[in-house]
Predict the 3D structure of the following.
Amino acid sequence: MRTTIRQQCLHARRSLSPDLRTLKSQQIVDALWPLIRCCSTLGSYLAMPDEVDLTPLHDRCWATGIALMVPQIQSKTTFAWVRLSSPADLIEGPYGIKTSAHPEVNSWSALDAVLVPMVGFRVDGARLGMGGGYYDRGLPTVRETTRVIGVAFDCQEAPGIDAQWWDVSMPCVITESRTLINSAWRCAPRSQPSKSR
């Protein structure tokens, strides 16, 4: 079920033309900026070709002195946050995912806000990722005051997502047309269900 929904969401995202993807990405950046402009340290991501492109937001961060952190994959289950101080820091990391060559590493708890890429989402904040679990493992360690924001295009909405106990829901989801706030910026992991005896 999750695999089918994931493929449907990826197909919808990939079906956007480059021009339309650029337009929708800019609309998302414009909606994000008021929510993160007061941050000192922002955790963001470097988009794959069909993801929401946050490059214009990164430019604003550099122009205003916000420290920008991006993922650097450490293993099959974890990544570290490394500083991206300019496009000159960009290198290709594992799995062909761009990252930063900068030596400065930060923990999840150092971030004032985290922008989370999504494959699919429900309007109540349930998130479907690529299946690696990187964000589900890391997000429960952010500070209570950290703003956690899921980022996706409208076409990635998938009401049929069956959230599991380990899935961390998004307190806020931003698309090109909507700002969906589902809690007071609190990002808490779900409790693992008790096993029946």
